[in-house]
Amino acid sequence: MKHFEYSPKGTCSVKMMFDIDENTDTVQNLEVIGGCNGNLKGIGALLKGMKVEDVISRLDGITCGIKPTSCPDQIAKALSAYEAQH
Asked: Band of the pLDDT at 71, cuts 50, 70, 90?
């Protein structure tokens, strides 16, 4: 299990912490500090067991209101950064 932390940009959330199973390349846990607590807990529950590449393809580019990004988009960016490091 690999622990990975990311500081999102342009959102209310301030820190994203992931546990990723390196053998299956799946998200096993997501915890987000800041942001919309209930929504982000729900997203974390939905992502559990999903392949990193599938999460990226589903969440990349989602915006929040007039902002050019969102917490889901930042999750995709975090996991893209994780992939680039591994």
From this structure: very high
pLDDT digits (tens, 9 = 90+) for 54-70: 999 999 999 999 999 99
SS3 74: helix
What the block records as the tokens of 37 is: 């607590």
User: Among 30, 18, 35, which Cα is nearest to 70's?
Assistant: 35
Which DSSP symbol is given to 64?
B
Helix (H, G, I), strand (E, B) or coil at 86: coil
CB atoms within 10 A of CB 49: 11
Phi and psi of 63, rounded to 5°?
-110, 165
- The bridge status of strand 13-21 relative to strand 2-6 is antiparallel
Contact between 43 and 71 under an 8 Å Cβ cutoff? The reply is yes
How large is the C-alpha radius of gyration of the chain? 12
Per-residue tokens: 44: 């974390």
